[in-house]
Give the backbone structure.
Amino acid sequence: MFKKGISIILILAAIYWSFSVLLPRDISNIDAPDNTFSTQRALIHLKEISKHPHYVGSPDHERVKNYLIAALEDLGLETQVQEGYILTDWGTLTKPKNILARIKGSDNSKALMLLSHYDSKSHASYGASDAGSGVVTILEGLRAYLHENKTPKNDLIILFSDAEELGLNGASLFVNKHPWAKDVGLVLNFEARGSGGPSYMLMETNGGNQKLISGFKEAHPDYPVANSLAYSVYKKLPNDTDLTRFREDGNIDGFNFAFIDDHFDYHTALDTYERLDRNTLEHQGSYLMPLLNYFSNANLSDLKSDKDDIYFNVPLFKTVNYPFSWIIPMLVLALIVFIALIFYGMKKRTLNAKQIGKGTLMFLVALIINGLLGFFGWKFILVIYPDYTEILQGFTYNGHSYIWVFSLLALGICFWLFHKIYKPGNTASLLVGPISIWLLICALVAFFLPGASFFIIPVFFGLISLFVLVRQKQPNFLLMVLLALPVLTIMTPFVQMFPVGLGLKLLLASTVLVTLIFGLLIAIFGFYRHKNRWSYFLLFIAAILFISANLQSGFNEDRPKPNSLVYYYDTDINEAVWTTYDNILDPWTKAYLTDKPDSNHDITKTTFGSKYNTGFSYSKKAQIKAIRHPYIDIKRDTVIGNNRHIKMFISPQRLVNRMDLYTDSTVTFNSFNVNGFEIEKDKNGFVFSNRTLNRLFEYYVVDDKFLELEFTVPKAQKLSFTYYESSFDLLSNELFQVPERPLNMTPKPFVLNDAIMLKKTIVLD
């Protein structure tokens, strides 16, 4: 019993160790040496940057821009601002204002770029984490680097890009329009998708990652959090950063460093200076300084590769990597060893075919039950707490409690099931089934998700455990725990990573991973006589945590409910409605939508661009306010040959932040110019020909508060536009006198919110 107690303590210590090495424990203070990164010094900049929301076109956007220019100049750098119209494949058009500086290196070599964006997400986010944290990491890192008075081999280019939140517009403008773009050999991009937790390294490359990961290792960051599984998954997801533009448009490689925990703060009014995890900011600095020192002197012309590496982080060894070419040989070797061990165990009569069958069947049952638990359990919780659907990020304020609940439930189920087939001396036989399932998974990922092929590493240690069990009926418990360290330290962080990064719908991944980890720990747990007691204990703890999560399921000032309200005025039919994206109305929204809102108005069938394609849910007829209609003037409409040439001017008669232009997707444009910006034609000589929806573009207003459109269409083509203009001033506009939200509510992110919208159809006969 004593040995089993020690084994539990060691297993818990290993799990704790696997998480403790992901983040710095302490932050550097204001008195840190001048040549080192100081989180406290970086926070001075962050406090200033994140005073107010600073989305593109807002007054504070200009203030933050000027502050950053002054901060760079205080470091002795000469700055420049690149601005110009750009339309991205997100369908967003705006005029970003990129802030640039350059430090000359000693060689005529490729440049190292330090990149982050300085705009916040409209309209309520303060942008402290996303991406004020990245901006101040670079500012403080540069200050420390320049204090050494070293001349780098490579030029250093600093880019604080603009309009990243709208569609990577600033990065697109730089890569496609700035002469420095051709000089860039590598990019270090600092981002955020939450307000805490470890920062993950994700690469962007069109080729193989082998040389990039080798350089990353040689730089020796203290807390590397990187694995080729996340890299493979990231490449399959529709998530882009500024670095995507460098890879796609410029074939320029780079590293993303982004933290993803406290995902509920992402793009919200909670993304504030106070809520940013200080250790997370320290982690960003711990990446920047060694990589800046290394890559500022590395050969950035020799980073391309046609080969990929498997890589993962593990305590003590930090980053481990090996070539993709090893995947199949390692898999084959594991299979050969596995088969040999089975024959060896049968010959020694320490393996029993019947017990192997029971163990395999029970492990499959555990996987199925726990998989269903994760999949349907979360759906069940959404039924109990429907308000959770208002958090579009998919990660609730008490999300970590649910990860614990489901993980402990899965573990308790595993103990209970394997208690049913416990017999003294059958541990070796029970381990065979889990190893066979692990090998099957490794075979599948080798062909369909090769970045996850480091899963074979725990399998090899599992095979060693099986060998020990075949030879010894009572193995040394300390040895068995040591052999379990790889599966615990490599795999346990993924139990948390998937639902944190991709939402609680991925609790399925947590419950399945817990089951797989338990499978290899059979080498230890198989000797536990009273596994049912452990099962009851774990289920009891899960119940306590579920009750705790329930007590935190409501909304308050620290955990406000996201909600939305929009005033929509259709000038075509002279009708106005209040509308919302919310599924469940609260007292604040009911004041306008009432207890019996409508759900069949035309506006509820219209989906404007949003991250999750969220549409309006309810509406209610509203009083028409004295909103001034836009001024529209057709300055030219002539036919020359087979083409109709039109020049149209649209000018809102109020302050607006965004203008959307729609027309039927079948309409053909031979050319199109917006405010002097010529939109690029495709290979067939047309414009906007690849769109599947009716939207032409969203224009986010910066300097030009109008749209001057010049375009050509076939002369026989019928043509009409639907024009929308939106201002983000619903709560401050004197026409409406909408009260501020209660403190337990917050503007819903990812949608057009707190807006006054106007619609007008423009028909060109």
